[in-house]
Amino acid sequence: MVNHAFLNSDRTQCVSAEWALAANHSRRYFCPNPYCDAHLYICQSDGNRQGYFSANRKLHRHIEHCDYSSSDNSTREQYDGSKFNFPKFIANLVARNSHHSSEQTEDKPNVVKAANTVSRKQLRTVRQLYTLCKQNPPTEQFNNYKFGDMLFDERSKDMHPNGPVKEMLVEAVRRPWLYEKGKYVLHLKTATTRSYNLEIHVPDHRIYNQFRKAIFDNPDSKIVLVGIWSLSRNGNYSSLTIEKKSQYWFLH
After folding, report:
1. Element (H, E) at 133
2. Single pTM value for the model
């Protein structure tokens, strides 16, 4: 489920669920994933008044592992974004010796009650943020932070012509040349049609060995990498230091 889709197969005309709710509800829309030919239709439920697109036709589901096949139909309106600070969110996540996670990264079930008595969740985990970024167009915002500036993927790559930089979630895949013997460095690339090289430093040998093994065990999976990225002096790659296991996970 997602709150945006495309009117045409070339995916040049993006529309919101709000727009589609006012249009013909029998109209077929195209999945944001250019490799997925799912038939999307506008839906609405009591728990989601803004509406959402769903591949609810049995013969035209999402392809396996499509980024937009999640059953999560949450929307940005369900989250309290008033205190959300993306750089702080990432800084707290990667703090090496942090024993008390930020409110924005803990998995606690707290909610914030707005003045109209509607409960709104705090955006706490990277998974929640990743899902929200995937559900929304990259140029739209959550508390003044563009989704495309928080997540580097196929849709947002043109917003960052030099590759990932600063605080960011990045979709990555493995490269044939994965590691250098004797160094705690892994070589990946962005999961985009025009890929950017990624140099991942993992100083803790236990985390390094576990991460490298997981890559070998899941060779076809996308990997979400989280942290503060820097561009090399020659501009040939973006680098990231991983201090915690929570800075990476495999999508499937």
Report:
1. helix 126-135
2. 0.75
